[in-house]
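Example record for the data management plan.
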Amino acid sequence: MLKLIRLEWKKNNAIKYIRNAAVTSVLLLLLFLFTVRELENPETIQAYGKSMLCSGVDMFTNLTYILFTSVMIAAFSVSPYQNKTMRLLFSYPISRRKLLLAQIFSVWIFNFAALTLSKLLFYVTLVLTKNYTHISAADIRLTDPLFYADVLAGSAAMVSIGFLALPVGLRLKSSKAAIIAGLIIVFGTQGNIGSYSLMYNLPFYGVLLVLAFAAVALSVYPVEKKDVA
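Corresponding structural encoding:
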């Protein structure tokens, strides 16, 4: 499986995605640094002990990498169906499910690592520039293992939820449909309904995670017998 994942990264030119992710994260960070200075009370504690500062980091990074996940799903998994190249891939003496799982894991691992590193970049920069931004950043506990556990768990959950775009793209055999589904997921997970925020709504996220795992399972399980055309 690891060999197949590496082949997927090589085939889809992972260097391009690394470059795009790095540039995107730096630009987002610069935008966030200018935005955070305008917040009236960025250290105000909100839901689940998250301050407005950390909530802002989560919002900026999560929405970006959920969309990034859908873009990579479109390129890695949906595009071969759309371009009729999946038939060739499935002609290899390798399980179809294993090939599709390799595509899925290659996207998940990349975006999990990218989202985690992006969040850490934000947090470290905020601590280093606190004299410039005039924010104490006291709740950014870089020496606390639980802080990193929260970052890892949040990144894993958000990237996994992004895979709700997978069955949409595969069903319609359309990369655009997968990306549009990613946009809808962004609005659904990071937006508001009136004055009610959907961020940090754990039951809502839990349902989305279950649906995401079900979506992946239902996309992978029937692929052995499903017509590629």
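Summary line stored alongside the record: Residues 96-128 form the longest helix (33 residues).
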